[in-house]
Design goal:
- It comes from Pseudoduganella flava.
- Pfam families: Epimerase (PF01370).
- By secondary structure, this protein is an alpha/beta fold.
- It has one domain: Rossmann fold.
- The chain is about 30% helix and about 20% strand.
- It has helices at about 15-20, 55-60, 80-100, 135-155, 175-180, 180-195, 250, and strands at about 5-10, 25-35, 45-50, 65-70, 105-110, 125, 155-165, 200-205, 215.
- Helix 2 (about 55-60) crosses helix 3 and helix 3 runs parallel beside helix 4 (about 135-155).
- The longest helix is centred in the middle third of the chain and has 21 residues, at about 80-100.
- The chain binds D-galactaro-1,5-lactone (15L).
- D-galactaro-1,5-lactone binds near residues 76, 112, 113, 175 and 178.
């Protein structure tokens, strides 16, 4: 197997649960970490309870690890302090541990909410200015900048995945554009982990949906080719189905409901 020990953080989350089963062929041992209970370790697994805000726990979690799939942290809009602890302080702990233990590569779950304040009429690529749509998006911007710094300073490679919406199926009309099917998610993570010499790369994560807001040209070297499409679910969101009213920020901006979820939003 290509890796001896692969660490997956956030292994109990929605995406973590999918990856838990699918990454087994990539490593002799998959170390699963989460702040919550992960149940019993199955064959080829190690389980660790870890709060990212706990520096010593993060250091211990990283021991003997070859590469990290970092899907831990808060994944929705929240108050600033919990986001700061898990996603900002936690990310600092993670990269200090990565550096200390000589880990070569991180695949980081960033988010499209780093650019959620672009309009749905705009097409965004990885070099365009960040436009976070809340504290959650801001924490992901921090992660992208932090990982860039650790690459420039220490040569630690990171692929930041600006994941759209990875669920069993799109839950609303917006997700017809942002949908990332699980098979495509696994393929994107595989490309991010195994492509030689990625340096610091930012890639968007969607399936081959009919509408596209994001241009993945800057991540072409990953060779990621999506195969699924949200079109399979088009019937769930017919034009007659209820939609937000015109002028609603959730239809104007790519971030959808996130743009008005935070306490800072004003009309
Ligand atoms: C995200 O970044 C969240 O982690 C996820 O829960 C979804 O809400 C997704 O974005 C989205 O925009 O649909």
């Amino acid at each position: 197997k290509p890796f001896n020990r692969l660490l997956l953080t956030g292994a109990g989350g929605g995406i973590g649960t999918v990856l838990r089963d699918r990454i087994k062929p990539w490593a002799r041992v998959v170390r699963l970490a989460d702040i919550g209970d992960l149940g019993e370790a199955r064959p080829g697994e190690e389980i660790m309870r870890c709060d990212l805000a706990d520096r010593d726990a993060v250091l211990a979690m990283m021991e003997g690890v070859d590469a990290v799939l970092h899907f831990g942290g808060i994944s929705v809009e929240d108050q600033f302090v919990p986001i700061m602890n898990a996603n900002i302080l936690g990310l600092h702990h993670l990269y200090e541990a990565v550096h200390k233990h000589g880990v070569g590569r991180v695949v980081y779950a960033s988010s499209s909410h780093t650019v959620g304040f672009y309009r749905t009429t705009e097409r965004v690529d990885a070099d365009m200015p960040l436009r976070p749509d809340g504290f959650y998006g801001l924490s992901k911007c921090f992660g992208e900048a932090l990982s860039r710094y650790y690459y420039d300073r220490c040569g630690i490679e990171t692929v930041c995945l600006r994941i759209g919406s990875s669920f069993p199926e799109p839950k609303n009309a917006r997700m017809m554009t942002t949908y990332l099917a699980y098979d495509d998610l696994v393929e994107l993570v595989r490309c991010a982990l195994f492509t030689p010499r990625v340096g610091h790369t930012i890639a968007f994560g969607t399936s081959a949906n009919a509408t596209q807001w994001w241009d993945n040209g800057k991540a072409a070297h990953l060779g990621y080719v999506p195969r699924a499409s949200s079109q399979a679910f088009a019937g769930n969101f017919p034009p007659t189905a209820e939609r937000p009213p015109a002028g609603d920020p959730t239809t104007i901006y790519q971030g959808g409901p996130f743009v008005s979820a935070g306490p800072m939003y004003r009309d």
